[in-house]
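Slide 14.
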Amino acid sequence: MVSFWVAALGLPLLAVVGNSFGRWLFRLPQSAPADVVLAFVIFDALVVLQGHEFAEFVGHDILKNEYFRDGNRVLFGLAGAVGLIFVIGELMQQPFQSYEKRDRQVRDREMR
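Slide 15: predicted structure.
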């Protein structure tokens, strides 16, 4: 039970801090929205992997049902997959944003 919350809170925090440090180290712009999505993806993955421990914290008896737990894993798995798509999309978009910034700087110099 405690191990679930240590992992559920510690791993997303570690991923966000590690991502921020890596971005700072390689002089990349920080991306708060992508970091939040990354934290949610990690939490969703933990719920899928440790669903039996997560079910202990659900208040309603019907939600503790074995069939719901399986459906719950599917829902969190889908949410994690969608979040992962957003993180990958953000990572793929960054090189193009740096080109746009460079092009804007070139245009600004030409206009002067």
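Speaker note: The chain has one domain: 2-111.
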